[in-house]
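A note from the maintainers: we've had questions about how concatenated examples are separated. There is no special marker in the raw files; a new sequence line simply starts the next protein. For clarity in this README we add a label.
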Amino acid sequence: MRIEHVAMYVNDLEKAREFFTEYLGGQSNDIYHNAKTDFRSYFICFDDGARLEIMTKPEICANGNESLSTGYAHIAFSVGSKEQVDILTERLKSDGYEVISGPRTTGDGYYESCIVGIEGNQIEITV
C-alpha cells in the first residue's frame, strides 16, 4: 500500500501552485474546474512520484493555523543534501518567507529547516 496523494485547501490557488512549482520543483497539471460547485484544483507532481492536490472553493476560509493542534503539522520535502537545504532556506528567507527553525541537525539526526510557506502552512526542507 502507498499514499496516493495528499490534498490541502487554499484560498489563493494560483499563488499556491506557483509556490510548489517555483520553490519545490513540482510539475502542475492543467486546472480542474467543476462549474457547478466552483471547486478548482491542481495536482502537483514531484520527481519521485509523490503528488499534492491543492484545492479551493468559494466557501473555504482560513483556519487558525495553530502550530500545535491536531491534524497535519507540515509537509516535508527532501532536497538531497545539506547544501541544498541551506540554499533553498536562504532563498525562501530572501523572498520573504519566515524561517521558524534551522537549518540545523535535530536530536534524531535529521538536517532540516522549517519555513512558514503558502497561507501559513509549515514546509520542512530536509536532506
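[label: protein 2]
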Amino acid sequence: MIKDFGKYVIMFFVLVLVQVLILNNIQVSGLINPYIYILFVLLLPFNIPGYFLLGFSFLIGFTVDIFGNTPGIHAGATVFLGFIRPALAQLISTRELIEKGTTPNMTQLGFASFIKYIIIAVLIHHLILFFAETFSFGDIFETLLRWILSSVLSILLILGSQFIIFKN
C-alpha cells in the first residue's frame, strides 16, 4: 500500500470531487442518488490493517458529509462498510488472494466475483445510509424504493468506471 499511496490519494480526491460536484446534484424525483465514493473503500488492498481501513472509511465518509451538509450519515454508513469488508472479502475471494494483499478489482478477482463484491457492498452501504437518513420506518416503502433505485445506479456507475479503467 505504501508504494501505491499516491494512487490512493488521487483516487480519494477524484472520487470525492465527482461525488460532491456531480453526483450529489443528480436527483431523479428525489428517489435516485448515486454514491460511488465508496469505491475508495472497496478498492483498498485486502491486507490493509483494520484500523487503517476504518480510518480511511471514516475520512472519506466524513469528507462527503462536510460537503453534503449531512451530519455523519455517510461517515457512519461508510465505517460500517469498512467494518464488514473483511468478512465480505472472505465470502467472495480465496484465502490466497486475501493473504497476498491483492487489490480487489475486476482483473484480480474475476468478473463474477467482483460483481458479487460490488453488489453486496453497495446494497449494504445504501441500506444503512438511507435508513440512517430517514431514521424512521414511517416511509419504509419510499426508503426501500430509494435504496433499490440508488443501489442499481451506483452499481452501474461503479462497474462502468471499472470497465473504463481496466479495459481488458
